[in-house]
Amino acid sequence: MVGGFCPTCGAAVAGGAGFCGQCGGRLTAEAAGQAAAPLGGFWRRFLAYVLDGVIASIAGEIVGLALHDVFVGSLIVTVVYWIGTVGAWQQTLGMRILGLRVVPSTERVRVSWADSLVRYLMMIVGGLCFGLGFLWAAWDPQRQTWHDHVAKTLVVSARA
Fold first, then answer.
1. Which helix (H) or strand (E) holds 32?
2. CA-CA-CA-CA dihedral for 40, 116, 96, 35, to nearest 10
3. 99 & 148 share domain
4. Which of 11, 26, 32, 95 has the fewest CB atoms inside 10 Å of its own CB, making it the most exposed?
């Protein structure tokens, strides 16, 4: 059943779809025929972040042992993991497990590599400010953290 058309590529989309099956663009409520994908909740995002931390830590230790420098290995893996997964797949492995996805909050089709880099750098800033940048999602109406606001992204349910 066609619910509308993608504003980016013009493909027909099913009613209630959050993303275009043709180009992957985020759909507006009008284009999808219903509401866009629901926002990712604070606790689901928190758990995804914890899972990502565990995954990146284990991989960083393995690479660090191979390089004979755990600090350098962990640093390389952490940067590549956070920027690479969001830039390539629009989600980290933790987000994928919990059914979350990073999408642009503007009319862009997808989160770019530059957006992913900005998002990661702001994650560091938000963490250094006693985690306030992450906690911001608990009371923000769009459930955005500081890194989401600066990179102009949202985290939504990928299962919608």
1. helix 29-32
2. 40
3. yes
4. 11
Task: Tell me, yes or no, whether 3 and 71 share the same domain.
Answer: no
Per-residue model confidence as pLDDT tens digits over 11-30: 556 666 677 776 777 766 55
Long-range Cβ contacts of 71-80 (<8 Å, 24+ apart): 79/120
Chain centre distance of CA 37 = 13
Contact 156, 37 (CB under 8 A): yes
3-state DSSP assignment of residue 102 = strand
Together in a domain, 25 and 82? no
Q: How many domains does the chain fold into?
A: 2
Query: What would the pLDDT profile of 108-158 be if each residue is shown by its tens digit?
Result: 788 999 999 999 999 999 999 999 999 999 999 999 999 999 999 999 998
- Return the H-helix or E-strand segment holding 13: strand 12-14
Q: Tell me: do 129 and 85 sit in the same domain.
A: yes
